[in-house]
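Field: COMPLEX_INPUT
Field: COMPONENT_COUNT = three
Field: RESIDUE_TOTAL = 422
Field: MODE = joint
Values follow.
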Amino acid sequence: MQSRIKFAYALALAALATVTVVTALTVAGELSAGFKDALKNTFTHHWLGKSAIALGLFFILTLLSYFAQTSTDEARLARMVRVLGWTAACATVGLYLFFLKEFLH
Amino acid sequence: MNTSTIIEFTLHILFGLAGMIFVYAYLTALLRRDPSVRFLSAASFSAALAFLLSWLTGGMYYLWYYGPSVKGVILGGQYTWAHAIFTEAKEHVFLFLPFLAATLYAVTALLGDRVKESAELKRSLIILAGATLTIGIAVTLSGVLISGAVR
Amino acid sequence: MDWQTLLIASHIIGTVFGAGGVTFAGIFYLLKRPVDPLTTLDQHFLTTTYTVLRIGIVLIVLSGFGFFILFRLQGHSAYLYSPMMWGKMVITVVILLNALLHHWRRLPWSLGSVISAVSWYSALLLGVYRRVHLDFATIMGLYLVAIVIGYILMRMTQKKNIFPTA
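Field: COMPLEX_OUTPUT
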Protein backbone atom coordinates (compact mmCIF):
# COMPACT_ATOMS: atom_id res chain seq x y z
CA MET A 1 0.00 0.00 0.00
CA GLN A 2 2.86 2.37 0.82
CA SER A 3 4.32 2.13 -2.69
CA ARG A 4 0.85 2.75 -4.16
CA ILE A 5 0.45 5.90 -2.10
CA LYS A 6 3.96 6.96 -3.12
CA PHE A 7 3.20 6.50 -6.83
CA ALA A 8 -0.16 8.27 -6.62
CA TYR A 9 1.54 11.16 -4.80
CA ALA A 10 4.32 11.30 -7.41
CA LEU A 11 1.76 11.47 -10.21
CA ALA A 12 -0.30 14.16 -8.49
CA LEU A 13 2.84 16.21 -7.84
CA ALA A 14 3.91 15.82 -11.48
CA ALA A 15 0.45 16.95 -12.62
CA LEU A 16 0.68 19.99 -10.34
CA ALA A 17 4.09 20.89 -11.75
CA THR A 18 2.80 20.41 -15.31
CA VAL A 19 -0.18 22.71 -14.75
CA THR A 20 2.10 25.34 -13.23
CA VAL A 21 4.73 25.12 -15.97
CA VAL A 22 2.15 25.24 -18.79
CA THR A 23 0.66 28.37 -17.22
CA ALA A 24 4.10 29.96 -16.84
CA LEU A 25 5.10 29.06 -20.42
CA THR A 26 1.84 30.51 -21.74
CA VAL A 27 2.25 33.83 -19.94
CA ALA A 28 5.97 33.98 -20.82
CA GLY A 29 5.18 33.32 -24.46
CA GLU A 30 2.73 36.20 -24.59
CA LEU A 31 5.00 38.63 -22.76
CA SER A 32 8.14 37.71 -24.70
CA ALA A 33 7.94 37.30 -28.47
CA GLY A 34 11.48 35.92 -28.44
CA PHE A 35 10.47 33.09 -26.11
CA LYS A 36 7.48 32.22 -28.25
CA ASP A 37 9.69 32.22 -31.36
CA ALA A 38 12.19 29.96 -29.62
CA LEU A 39 9.42 27.43 -28.93
CA LYS A 40 8.23 27.73 -32.52
CA ASN A 41 11.76 27.25 -33.92
CA THR A 42 12.37 24.18 -31.75
CA PHE A 43 8.99 22.47 -32.15
CA THR A 44 7.61 24.07 -35.42
CA HIS A 45 4.70 25.56 -33.39
CA HIS A 46 4.58 27.10 -29.91
CA TRP A 47 1.54 25.04 -28.89
CA LEU A 48 3.20 21.84 -30.01
CA GLY A 49 6.17 22.84 -27.88
CA LYS A 50 4.02 23.36 -24.80
CA SER A 51 2.25 20.05 -25.37
CA ALA A 52 5.54 18.20 -25.72
CA ILE A 53 7.04 19.90 -22.66
CA ALA A 54 3.90 19.14 -20.63
CA LEU A 55 3.95 15.44 -21.56
CA GLY A 56 7.68 15.04 -21.07
CA LEU A 57 7.69 16.92 -17.78
CA PHE A 58 4.78 14.87 -16.45
CA PHE A 59 6.44 11.52 -17.11
CA ILE A 60 9.90 12.54 -15.95
CA LEU A 61 8.65 14.21 -12.78
CA THR A 62 6.42 11.25 -11.92
CA LEU A 63 9.42 8.92 -12.01
CA LEU A 64 11.80 11.34 -10.27
CA SER A 65 9.43 12.17 -7.42
CA TYR A 66 8.50 8.51 -6.95
CA PHE A 67 12.11 7.49 -6.40
CA ALA A 68 13.01 10.66 -4.50
CA GLN A 69 10.30 10.19 -1.86
CA THR A 70 11.34 8.62 1.42
CA SER A 71 7.89 8.18 2.85
CA THR A 72 4.44 9.57 2.43
CA ASP A 73 1.03 9.01 3.89
CA GLU A 74 -2.55 9.22 2.81
CA ALA A 75 -3.13 12.62 4.41
CA ARG A 76 -0.26 14.09 2.40
CA LEU A 77 -1.65 12.56 -0.79
CA ALA A 78 -5.12 13.95 -0.04
CA ARG A 79 -3.59 17.40 0.48
CA MET A 80 -1.66 17.19 -2.81
CA VAL A 81 -4.80 16.19 -4.72
CA ARG A 82 -6.68 19.11 -3.19
CA VAL A 83 -3.88 21.55 -4.04
CA LEU A 84 -3.83 20.23 -7.62
CA GLY A 85 -7.57 20.81 -8.02
CA TRP A 86 -7.46 24.35 -6.66
CA THR A 87 -4.30 25.25 -8.58
CA ALA A 88 -5.75 24.06 -11.88
CA ALA A 89 -8.97 25.99 -11.25
CA CYS A 90 -7.10 29.18 -10.32
CA ALA A 91 -4.72 28.81 -13.27
CA THR A 92 -7.74 28.50 -15.58
CA VAL A 93 -9.36 31.66 -14.24
CA GLY A 94 -5.99 33.38 -14.33
CA LEU A 95 -5.34 32.51 -17.97
CA TYR A 96 -8.78 33.66 -19.13
CA LEU A 97 -8.34 36.94 -17.27
CA PHE A 98 -4.80 37.30 -18.62
CA PHE A 99 -5.94 36.99 -22.22
CA LEU A 100 -8.88 39.30 -21.55
CA LYS A 101 -6.42 41.87 -20.25
CA GLU A 102 -4.13 41.37 -23.26
CA PHE A 103 -7.09 41.83 -25.61
CA LEU A 104 -8.31 44.99 -23.91
CA HIS A 105 -4.83 46.53 -24.17
CA MET B 1 -13.14 21.78 -44.90
CA ASN B 2 -11.98 18.50 -46.42
CA THR B 3 -13.07 15.11 -45.07
CA SER B 4 -10.09 14.52 -42.80
CA THR B 5 -10.47 17.98 -41.25
CA ILE B 6 -14.17 17.34 -40.63
CA ILE B 7 -13.27 14.04 -38.96
CA GLU B 8 -10.59 15.69 -36.78
CA PHE B 9 -12.96 18.50 -35.79
CA THR B 10 -15.84 16.13 -35.00
CA LEU B 11 -13.71 13.63 -33.10
CA HIS B 12 -12.07 16.40 -31.07
CA ILE B 13 -15.50 17.56 -29.90
CA LEU B 14 -16.93 14.07 -29.34
CA PHE B 15 -13.89 12.83 -27.40
CA GLY B 16 -13.90 16.01 -25.33
CA LEU B 17 -17.60 15.56 -24.55
CA ALA B 18 -17.01 11.92 -23.71
CA GLY B 19 -14.28 12.97 -21.28
CA MET B 20 -16.67 15.41 -19.61
CA ILE B 21 -19.43 12.80 -19.38
CA PHE B 22 -17.02 10.34 -17.73
CA VAL B 23 -15.79 12.95 -15.24
CA TYR B 24 -19.40 13.85 -14.43
CA ALA B 25 -20.23 10.16 -13.97
CA TYR B 26 -17.17 9.82 -11.72
CA LEU B 27 -18.20 12.78 -9.59
CA THR B 28 -21.82 11.60 -9.32
CA ALA B 29 -20.68 8.13 -8.27
CA LEU B 30 -18.14 9.51 -5.79
CA LEU B 31 -20.80 11.62 -4.08
CA ARG B 32 -22.81 8.51 -3.14
CA ARG B 33 -22.59 7.13 0.38
CA ASP B 34 -21.11 3.87 -0.90
CA PRO B 35 -19.42 4.45 -4.27
CA SER B 36 -18.32 1.55 -6.46
CA VAL B 37 -14.53 1.73 -6.76
CA ARG B 38 -14.68 -0.38 -9.91
CA PHE B 39 -17.02 2.12 -11.54
CA LEU B 40 -14.87 5.05 -10.39
CA SER B 41 -11.73 3.44 -11.86
CA ALA B 42 -13.46 2.74 -15.16
CA ALA B 43 -14.94 6.24 -15.38
CA SER B 44 -11.69 8.04 -14.57
CA PHE B 45 -9.66 5.85 -16.94
CA SER B 46 -12.18 6.49 -19.72
CA ALA B 47 -12.06 10.23 -19.02
CA ALA B 48 -8.25 10.31 -19.19
CA LEU B 49 -8.25 8.33 -22.45
CA ALA B 50 -10.98 10.49 -23.97
CA PHE B 51 -9.15 13.73 -23.12
CA LEU B 52 -5.95 12.28 -24.57
CA LEU B 53 -7.70 11.48 -27.85
CA SER B 54 -9.39 14.89 -27.86
CA TRP B 55 -5.95 16.46 -27.37
CA LEU B 56 -4.54 14.53 -30.33
CA THR B 57 -7.42 15.23 -32.74
CA GLY B 58 -7.75 18.83 -31.54
CA GLY B 59 -4.05 19.38 -32.08
CA MET B 60 -4.27 18.07 -35.64
CA TYR B 61 -7.28 20.29 -36.39
CA TYR B 62 -5.64 23.32 -34.74
CA LEU B 63 -2.25 23.00 -36.42
CA TRP B 64 -3.36 21.95 -39.90
CA TYR B 65 -6.63 23.83 -40.36
CA TYR B 66 -7.54 26.36 -37.66
CA GLY B 67 -4.19 28.20 -37.79
CA PRO B 68 -3.93 28.54 -41.55
CA SER B 69 -7.64 28.87 -42.47
CA VAL B 70 -9.86 29.89 -39.55
CA LYS B 71 -7.80 32.20 -37.33
CA GLY B 72 -7.54 34.85 -40.05
CA VAL B 73 -11.30 34.75 -40.68
CA ILE B 74 -12.08 35.35 -37.01
CA LEU B 75 -9.46 38.08 -36.59
CA GLY B 76 -10.75 39.77 -39.75
CA GLY B 77 -14.37 39.71 -38.59
CA GLN B 78 -16.35 41.42 -35.87
CA TYR B 79 -15.64 38.83 -33.15
CA THR B 80 -11.86 39.11 -32.83
CA TRP B 81 -12.21 38.55 -29.07
CA ALA B 82 -13.30 34.96 -29.82
CA HIS B 83 -9.75 34.12 -30.93
CA ALA B 84 -7.82 36.63 -28.84
CA ILE B 85 -9.38 35.55 -25.56
CA PHE B 86 -11.11 32.22 -25.96
CA THR B 87 -8.89 30.34 -28.42
CA GLU B 88 -5.74 31.56 -26.71
CA ALA B 89 -7.02 30.57 -23.28
CA LYS B 90 -8.68 27.33 -24.36
CA GLU B 91 -5.69 25.93 -26.26
CA HIS B 92 -3.59 26.15 -23.09
CA VAL B 93 -6.16 25.39 -20.42
CA PHE B 94 -7.14 22.23 -22.32
CA LEU B 95 -3.64 20.89 -21.65
CA PHE B 96 -4.55 20.57 -17.95
CA LEU B 97 -7.40 18.12 -18.52
CA PRO B 98 -5.59 14.89 -19.44
CA PHE B 99 -3.26 15.24 -16.43
CA LEU B 100 -6.08 16.00 -14.02
CA ALA B 101 -8.05 13.00 -15.26
CA ALA B 102 -4.93 10.81 -15.10
CA THR B 103 -4.47 11.81 -11.46
CA LEU B 104 -8.09 10.96 -10.69
CA TYR B 105 -7.58 7.54 -12.23
CA ALA B 106 -4.24 6.88 -10.57
CA VAL B 107 -5.43 7.77 -7.06
CA THR B 108 -8.65 5.79 -7.50
CA ALA B 109 -7.05 2.70 -9.01
CA LEU B 110 -4.08 2.63 -6.64
CA LEU B 111 -5.91 3.32 -3.40
CA GLY B 112 -9.05 1.33 -4.15
CA ASP B 113 -11.41 1.05 -1.20
CA ARG B 114 -9.53 3.75 0.72
CA VAL B 115 -11.19 6.24 -1.65
CA LYS B 116 -14.54 5.56 0.00
CA GLU B 117 -13.25 4.74 3.49
CA SER B 118 -11.19 7.91 3.95
CA ALA B 119 -13.35 11.03 4.21
CA GLU B 120 -10.36 13.30 3.60
CA LEU B 121 -9.28 11.49 0.44
CA LYS B 122 -12.85 11.39 -0.84
CA ARG B 123 -13.23 15.12 -0.27
CA SER B 124 -9.97 15.82 -2.12
CA LEU B 125 -11.07 13.74 -5.09
CA ILE B 126 -14.41 15.59 -5.14
CA ILE B 127 -12.49 18.86 -5.35
CA LEU B 128 -10.23 17.55 -8.13
CA ALA B 129 -13.10 16.05 -10.13
CA GLY B 130 -15.16 19.21 -9.61
CA ALA B 131 -12.25 21.34 -10.84
CA THR B 132 -11.79 19.07 -13.88
CA LEU B 133 -15.49 19.30 -14.71
CA THR B 134 -15.59 23.08 -14.32
CA ILE B 135 -12.49 23.55 -16.46
CA GLY B 136 -13.99 21.22 -19.05
CA ILE B 137 -17.22 23.23 -19.15
CA ALA B 138 -15.23 26.46 -19.61
CA VAL B 139 -13.22 24.89 -22.45
CA THR B 140 -16.37 23.50 -24.10
CA LEU B 141 -18.26 26.81 -23.99
CA SER B 142 -15.16 28.56 -25.32
CA GLY B 143 -15.21 26.17 -28.26
CA VAL B 144 -18.82 27.11 -29.04
CA LEU B 145 -17.93 30.83 -28.92
CA ILE B 146 -14.96 30.28 -31.23
CA SER B 147 -16.93 28.27 -33.78
CA GLY B 148 -19.71 30.85 -33.73
CA ALA B 149 -17.25 33.57 -34.68
CA VAL B 150 -16.27 31.91 -37.96
CA ARG B 151 -18.32 33.97 -40.42
CA MET C 1 -32.06 9.44 -42.71
CA ASP C 2 -29.82 12.48 -42.82
CA TRP C 3 -27.77 13.79 -39.88
CA GLN C 4 -30.19 16.64 -39.11
CA THR C 5 -33.16 14.28 -38.82
CA LEU C 6 -31.15 11.89 -36.65
CA LEU C 7 -30.07 14.72 -34.35
CA ILE C 8 -33.61 16.11 -34.09
CA ALA C 9 -34.96 12.66 -33.22
CA SER C 10 -32.23 12.08 -30.61
CA HIS C 11 -32.78 15.51 -29.11
CA ILE C 12 -36.53 14.96 -28.84
CA ILE C 13 -36.10 11.51 -27.31
CA GLY C 14 -33.62 12.95 -24.80
CA THR C 15 -36.09 15.68 -23.87
CA VAL C 16 -38.91 13.14 -23.51
CA PHE C 17 -36.75 11.02 -21.20
CA GLY C 18 -35.64 14.02 -19.16
CA ALA C 19 -38.88 15.98 -18.89
CA GLY C 20 -40.88 12.78 -18.56
CA GLY C 21 -38.58 11.36 -15.91
CA VAL C 22 -38.60 14.51 -13.82
CA THR C 23 -42.39 14.72 -14.13
CA PHE C 24 -42.97 11.16 -12.93
CA ALA C 25 -40.47 11.52 -10.10
CA GLY C 26 -42.16 14.76 -9.02
CA ILE C 27 -45.69 13.32 -9.15
CA PHE C 28 -44.53 10.26 -7.24
CA TYR C 29 -43.09 12.36 -4.41
CA LEU C 30 -46.15 14.62 -4.27
CA LEU C 31 -48.52 11.66 -4.00
CA LYS C 32 -46.45 9.93 -1.36
CA ARG C 33 -47.03 11.03 2.21
CA PRO C 34 -43.87 12.25 3.97
CA VAL C 35 -44.53 9.85 6.88
CA ASP C 36 -44.55 6.76 4.66
CA PRO C 37 -41.08 5.21 4.27
CA LEU C 38 -39.81 4.37 0.79
CA THR C 39 -40.42 0.70 0.04
CA THR C 40 -38.06 -1.43 -2.07
CA LEU C 41 -40.47 -1.05 -4.97
CA ASP C 42 -40.46 2.74 -4.52
CA GLN C 43 -36.68 2.82 -4.57
CA HIS C 44 -36.58 0.59 -7.64
CA PHE C 45 -39.03 2.89 -9.41
CA LEU C 46 -37.00 5.98 -8.55
CA THR C 47 -33.69 4.37 -9.53
CA THR C 48 -35.16 3.41 -12.90
CA THR C 49 -36.65 6.87 -13.41
CA TYR C 50 -33.37 8.61 -12.61
CA THR C 51 -31.47 6.26 -14.92
CA VAL C 52 -33.82 7.15 -17.77
CA LEU C 53 -33.39 10.82 -16.87
CA ARG C 54 -29.58 10.44 -17.08
CA ILE C 55 -29.85 8.77 -20.47
CA GLY C 56 -31.99 11.72 -21.50
CA ILE C 57 -29.38 14.27 -20.46
CA VAL C 58 -26.62 12.37 -22.27
CA LEU C 59 -28.75 12.28 -25.44
CA ILE C 60 -29.51 15.99 -25.09
CA VAL C 61 -25.85 16.94 -24.67
CA LEU C 62 -24.55 14.72 -27.47
CA SER C 63 -27.27 15.68 -29.96
CA GLY C 64 -27.00 19.34 -28.93
CA PHE C 65 -23.33 19.36 -29.76
CA GLY C 66 -24.13 17.39 -32.88
CA PHE C 67 -26.20 20.42 -33.95
CA PHE C 68 -23.28 22.75 -33.19
CA ILE C 69 -21.01 20.66 -35.40
CA LEU C 70 -23.61 20.62 -38.16
CA PHE C 71 -24.18 24.40 -37.97
CA ARG C 72 -20.43 25.00 -38.13
CA LEU C 73 -19.88 22.66 -41.05
CA GLN C 74 -22.85 23.98 -43.01
CA GLY C 75 -21.81 27.61 -42.63
CA HIS C 76 -24.56 28.56 -40.16
CA SER C 77 -22.16 29.64 -37.40
CA ALA C 78 -24.42 32.55 -36.50
CA TYR C 79 -26.81 30.11 -34.78
CA LEU C 80 -24.08 29.41 -32.24
CA TYR C 81 -24.57 32.93 -30.90
CA SER C 82 -28.35 32.64 -30.66
CA PRO C 83 -29.68 33.79 -27.22
CA MET C 84 -32.20 30.91 -27.24
CA MET C 85 -29.42 28.42 -27.76
CA TRP C 86 -27.26 29.94 -25.01
CA GLY C 87 -30.32 29.95 -22.75
CA LYS C 88 -30.70 26.20 -23.33
CA MET C 89 -27.00 25.63 -22.69
CA VAL C 90 -27.04 27.51 -19.39
CA ILE C 91 -30.16 25.63 -18.34
CA THR C 92 -28.50 22.31 -19.25
CA VAL C 93 -25.51 23.22 -17.05
CA VAL C 94 -27.95 24.08 -14.23
CA ILE C 95 -29.64 20.67 -14.62
CA LEU C 96 -26.26 18.95 -14.33
CA LEU C 97 -25.08 21.00 -11.34
CA ASN C 98 -28.45 20.59 -9.62
CA ALA C 99 -28.19 16.82 -9.98
CA LEU C 100 -24.70 16.87 -8.45
CA LEU C 101 -25.82 18.97 -5.50
CA HIS C 102 -28.78 16.62 -5.02
CA HIS C 103 -26.41 13.62 -4.90
CA TRP C 104 -24.19 15.48 -2.51
CA ARG C 105 -27.23 16.26 -0.31
CA ARG C 106 -26.31 19.94 -0.36
CA LEU C 107 -29.66 21.12 -1.69
CA PRO C 108 -33.08 20.73 -0.04
CA TRP C 109 -35.04 18.14 -2.00
CA SER C 110 -37.99 20.48 -2.63
CA LEU C 111 -35.78 23.21 -4.14
CA GLY C 112 -33.75 20.73 -6.19
CA SER C 113 -36.82 19.10 -7.68
CA VAL C 114 -38.35 22.47 -8.60
CA ILE C 115 -35.11 23.58 -10.29
CA SER C 116 -34.96 20.25 -12.15
CA ALA C 117 -38.58 20.36 -13.34
CA VAL C 118 -38.52 24.07 -14.31
CA SER C 119 -35.19 23.59 -16.09
CA TRP C 120 -36.35 20.64 -18.20
CA TYR C 121 -39.60 22.33 -19.19
CA SER C 122 -37.85 25.66 -19.88
CA ALA C 123 -35.38 23.92 -22.18
CA LEU C 124 -38.31 22.16 -23.85
CA LEU C 125 -40.16 25.46 -24.39
CA LEU C 126 -37.03 27.17 -25.71
CA GLY C 127 -36.80 24.38 -28.26
CA VAL C 128 -40.47 24.64 -29.24
CA TYR C 129 -40.39 28.45 -29.49
CA ARG C 130 -36.94 28.66 -31.04
CA ARG C 131 -38.14 31.15 -33.67
CA VAL C 132 -39.29 33.63 -31.02
CA HIS C 133 -36.66 36.32 -30.56
CA LEU C 134 -35.89 37.05 -26.95
CA ASP C 135 -32.60 38.37 -25.65
CA PHE C 136 -30.52 36.31 -23.23
CA ALA C 137 -31.25 38.49 -20.18
CA THR C 138 -35.02 38.14 -20.72
CA ILE C 139 -34.75 34.37 -21.10
CA MET C 140 -32.74 34.05 -17.87
CA GLY C 141 -35.05 36.45 -16.06
CA LEU C 142 -38.15 34.45 -17.03
CA TYR C 143 -36.36 31.23 -16.06
CA LEU C 144 -35.50 32.53 -12.58
CA VAL C 145 -39.03 33.84 -12.08
CA ALA C 146 -40.39 30.42 -13.06
CA ILE C 147 -38.15 28.75 -10.46
CA VAL C 148 -39.33 31.14 -7.74
CA ILE C 149 -43.00 30.64 -8.64
CA GLY C 150 -42.47 26.88 -8.86
CA TYR C 151 -40.87 26.79 -5.42
CA ILE C 152 -43.68 28.83 -3.85
CA LEU C 153 -46.29 26.52 -5.40
CA MET C 154 -44.36 23.45 -4.22
CA ARG C 155 -44.25 24.72 -0.63
CA MET C 156 -47.98 25.56 -0.77
CA THR C 157 -48.93 22.08 -1.98
CA GLN C 158 -46.71 20.48 0.67
CA LYS C 159 -48.24 22.52 3.47
CA LYS C 160 -51.85 22.02 2.39
CA ASN C 161 -51.28 18.36 1.39
CA ILE C 162 -53.78 18.89 -1.45
CA PHE C 163 -52.93 15.68 -3.28
CA PRO C 164 -54.68 12.50 -2.05
CA THR C 165 -52.43 9.74 -0.75
CA ALA C 166 -51.66 6.98 -3.28
